[in-house]
Amino acid sequence: MTPRRPIGEITRGTTNPNRLRRVDNWLVHAYGPLLRAAVDPLVVDLGYGATPTTAVELRARLARVRPDVRVVGVEIDPARVAAAAPAADPPWLEFRRGGFELAGLRPVIVRALNVLRQYDEPAVAGAWATVGRHLAPGGVLVDGTCDELGRLGAWLTVTAAASTTQLTLAARLATLPRPAAFAERLPKALIHRNVPGEPIHALLTALDDAWLAAAPYATFGPRGRFAAAVAATRAAGWPIVHEPRRWRLGELSLPWPVPTGGS
C-alpha cells in the first residue's frame, strides 16, 4: 500500500536537457539485457526535478533496447507532477507523486540522479533500503551525481538489499582536466569518504597518477590518454571492468566495494 505521505524531501529540482545522457547511455549498455528479459519493463525516474525533460529523454533512450519500456517520473512535489502532465504519453511515460517508496510501483530499474546528494549522509542507507523494498525481483537502483551540463558524473549500482555492487565514473574527456575532478561529483555515500585511507581516495589517486604518467598519449587525444590511464590503473590491480571501448568514451566501472586485494 502506498503511504499517504511520500517518503523524502523536496529537492532543488535543477535540471537541463541532456544532463543525464551519460548515465542513460550507460543504462542502455549495462542493463539492456535486464530490460529485455523483464516481464514488466518498468523504470522509475526518481526525483526528475522541476521539468520532465530527463524523464522524456530516459524513455526515448531505453526504448532503443526495449520499445515497450514504461517510464514513470516520480516527484515528491505535487506542483512538479502537475507541471509535467502535458509531457505524459500513457502508458509509456507517466508522472506520479511519490518519494523513496516509489509511489507503490515495482520497477526493475530506478534512476535517482542528483537526489540523495542533497540529503545528509546518514539518510542514504535508509533511502536505499526503502527503494530496495519496492524494486521488482532482480531490480537495481542507480544513485549518483553529475554536474549541471552532464559532463562529469559518478554513480553507484545498489541492489534490493541496499548493497552497492558497482561504481561507475563518466566524463566528457574534452573537458576533463584530470581524473581527480571526479571527486567533485561523487555520490553522497562516497564524497565524505574521499580522504586518505579510504578506497575511493586510493582509486582516484591511482587514476590521477596514471593520467599524469600517460601524458605522452596526449598525442592521440584525450580518449587515447584516458584509455591508457585506465588500462594502467587496471594493470596495477584495480578490478576495472575490461571495456576499452567504454574507456575511450570516458567511462569506467568496477565492483564496489572493491574486493579484498583488488588494489
Automatic annotation (TrEMBL):
Q: InterPro entries in the record, alphabetically?
A: SAM-dependent_MTases_sf (IPR029063)
Write down the Gene3D superfamilies for this protein, in alphabetical order: Vaccinia Virus protein VP39 (3.40.50.150)
SUPFAM superfamilies membership: S-adenosyl-L-methionine-dependent methyltransferases
Domain of life (superkingdom): Bacteria
Name of the featured protein:
Class I SAM-dependent methyltransferase
Q: Which organism is it from?
A: Luedemannella flava
Q: Lineage of this protein's species? A: Bacteria, Bacillati, Actinomycetota, Actinomycetes, Micromonosporales
